[in-house]
Specification:
By secondary structure, the protein is α/β, with parallel strands linked by helices. It contains 13 helices and 8 strands.
Length: 311
Amino acid sequence: MNNKFCHYTVMLKEAIDWLNCQDGKIYIDATAGGGGHSYEISKKIGPTGRLIATDMDIEAINAARQKTQEFSDIIEIIQASYTDIPEILYKRDIDKITGGILFDLGASYYQLTSAQRGFSFSKNAPLDMRFNPNDPFSAYDVINTYKEEELANIFKLYGEERFSKRIAGKITEQRKKEPIKTTLQLANLIKSNTPFAKGKIHPATRVFQAIRIEVNNELKNIEKAIKHIIPLLEKDARIVIISFHSLEDRLVKNLFKYYASSCNCPPEQLVCKCDIKQLEILTKKPVIASEEEIKLNPPSRSAKLRAAKKV
């Protein structure tokens, strides 16, 4: 098996353009991945700029450090969640993100295709799905310890799976006999208990997405990170977010809309007490990957980029 960390940098040009990189400013790459975005940011911000990159996956960290080693004077790569960024900045006496921050959400190609990580149902592997392999909580725990109702809710909320109750019922029925330990065990159970039309997406796709989101607390972490980081942006600093499924994109869209509004008071309140407008939305509609990029990297067809700046 090839253990080399492989991650196609999605919407590289678009992300860097919307981030509006400038010499001498402080930037954050919240999801370093293989270091593709970090490398381009470092090229743009000059010797007086500063870049801090974070990722929970040590394989990603190592790959990013190797990719960006020529810029080691201006870049610091840290194994951490992007929810830790406020604390990271505080420890470094950084009051404001003067340039901008980039989020490239979702799993990397390496994570999705590496057999031992358990993200994919196309290869038999232990049920894992952790972005940070050091975390104690995994997909195994979700599948074998959550109550039937909890599983159904997760599959419906995070996977938009219409057979969520049926699948949850079959999982709880099966695990009474023996624990469900592998990706193929789970995928085959789902496939044998839901309608499957040839040529359509595998019936386990939505459930695996839902489990991954639950294991890594993805949507809650995205919301938490955005809310905590917006106040740390200096005026005109950019926030650029690339998402890969409708739940993420909807969350980003709604948060941007909320922080770009001048008033969110209830209609019955006569005097506005908001004063919350903190962002100007730069992308009225999400930016999508070019046809050329989609040909080179088909998964990029799902990518949507939204950008805003601090006001």
